[in-house]
Structure formats: C-alpha cells, structure tokens
Amino acid sequence: MDLAPDALLRRAAFKKGARPMKIVMAVIKPFKLEEVRDALTALGVHGLTVTEVKGYGRQKGHTEIYRGAEYAVSFLPKLKIEVAVATELVAQVIEAITAAARTGQIGDGKIFVTSLEKAVRIRTGETDVDAL
C-alpha cells in the first residue's frame, strides 16, 4: 500500500492521539484589523500574527501625486494575518474573518488554509493543539 507522505503524517498523528491543526492566512485591508481581531477573540482564538505586506491583484493600484509629479502605486498596503487553529475551528474562523473584513469593494482580500504538522510552545514544551 503506497501512501503519500501527507497521508502517512496524518495516519501517524492520529495513532498518537494528536488532533489535526491548520494555519489560516488572511490578507485584508489594514483598517479592518481590529474588527477581525475582535471576531477571532469572540471565537476563543487568542493568538495571531500580523504582518504588513503589499499586494497586487484585481484592485490594480492607483495613481498619486507627489511634489507635482504623478506616479503609479501598483502594490497596495495590506495586512497578512496568520492563525493556527484546531481543524474543527477552521470553518468558524473563515466565517469570522470573512464577515469582519468584508467591505463589499474590490481588494477585500483572500483567505488561505494550509495543514500544520506540529506546534510547540517554547516556554512550556506543550505540543500541537495544547500549544495553540
């Protein structure tokens, strides 16, 4: 029986009694950060990482005038939020981020979900979901 490496990892994790985890990454407009944080806190998600990023997508940027000269701003400022959660919370986290970050305008952002193999809290040594 040939199993993909990902399937082997999942099988090994379940044998040890570990619960699967995911990383939810969202790219949002900067002014929506507090609303998204409040929505995640209401779900019981207390840890998140925020990174200032620049992006180019369908919004395509805009032009600005600086000292009388017009120039194009192609990459717009965004925030990338990363949250590690137990797999059973993923749907709720996606719904909370979507509801809090939506303006209905182009450039509201995107959400990506990836598998998380292992997590370790450095201070205590707790692992996986206990470390989140």
Automatic annotation (TrEMBL):
Going by the UniProt record, its keywords in alphabetical order are: Nitrogen fixation, Nucleotide-binding, Phosphoprotein, Transcription, Transcription regulation
Under the GO molecular function aspect, what terms does this record hold? ATP binding; enzyme regulator activity
Which InterPro entries did the record assign? N-reg_PII (IPR002187), N-reg_PII-like_a/b (IPR011322), N-reg_PII/ATP_PRibTrfase_C (IPR015867), N-reg_PII_CS (IPR017918), N-reg_PII_urydylation_site (IPR002332)
Q: Tell me yes or no: is Transcription regulation among this UniProt entry's keywords.
A: yes
Residue numbers bearing the O-UMP-tyrosine modification = 71
Q: Which PROSITE patterns match?
A: PII_GLNB_CTER (PS00638), PII_GLNB_DOM (PS51343), PII_GLNB_UMP (PS00496)
Choose one Gene Ontology CC annotation of this protein and give it: cytosol
- Gene Ontology biological process terms, A to Z: regulation of nitrogen utilization
Subunit comment: Homotrimer.
Family, as annotated: Belongs to the P(II) protein family.
What role does this protein play? In nitrogen-limiting conditions, when the ratio of Gln to 2-ketoglutarate decreases, P-II is uridylylated to P-II-UMP. P-II-UMP allows the deadenylation of glutamine synthetase (GS), thus activating the enzyme. Conversely, in nitrogen excess P-II is deuridylated and promotes the adenylation of GS. P-II indirectly controls the transcription of the GS gene (glnA). P-II prevents NR-II-catalyzed conversion of NR-I to NR-I-phosphate, the transcriptional activator of glnA. When P-II is uridylylated to P-II-UMP, these events are reversed.
Q: Specify the protein name.
A: Nitrogen regulatory protein P-II
